Every structure is written in structure tokens, then in C-alpha cells.
Amino acid sequence: MTEENQKCPKCESPYAYSDGQLWNCPECFHEWSLDANNEETEQEHQFLDVNGAPLQNGDSVTVIRDLKAGKSTIKSGTKVKNIRLLDDPVNGHDISCKVDGHGSMYLKCSVVKKA
Questions:
Q1: Is the pTM of this model over 0.70?
Q2: Membrane spanning segments where (predicted)?
Q3: Does domain 61-114 have CATH number 3.50.50.60?
Q4: Which of 56, 58, 64, 76 has its CB surrounded by the most CB atoms within 10 Å?
């Protein structure tokens, strides 16, 4: 396949476009590089906390900053147990969990650290 007609490796969209060194998909927002090895591109999404530590299903994490949750706030330092990592992120959130006093919600890996 030539550079002019790249398809998105994630959703197979024919509308992919080059933005310098990265290719972008306007439909699923996936980014990739033609220089990357195909095996690396197809690797499972890595879930890393704010410090770069890998996260796994069932881990406990700590929230690193105050987060608005409806009318209340989840305070920095709140511990969340038994997280579930999402293969298909929901609005950019890749962790599903239950926070004591707040119920079920989604969090981003960028706002938690492994406990």
C-alpha cells in the first residue's frame, strides 16, 4: 500500500491522512507511524499510570488530583480498588471502577498512580 492511500490499521477507514511523521484517522482518532514495525503497531494497548508503571485488571490505584464527579469532588489521594481496564475507551477514559461514596465511573490512566 502506498503512502497516498493508507487505511487506518484500527478501523480500516480510507480517510486516513498524514500529519508530518504520524498518520491520523478522523473516524476513530487512531495515530500511527509508517516507520513503526507492524508487530509493534498491532500490540495490545498499554495501560500506564502517571509514573509509567503498567496497570492490570484488579489493581488498586490512587487518584493524583481532585476530580469533579457531578456535584461532588473526588479528592486527591482517594484509593480505588479492583480497577477494570477497557479495551475500547469511553470518551478517552480507559479505567472502569467504583469509587467509595461516588459509585461507578470511568477514569483516565493519566490521573492515577498504582497503589
A1: no
A2: none
A3: no
A4: 64
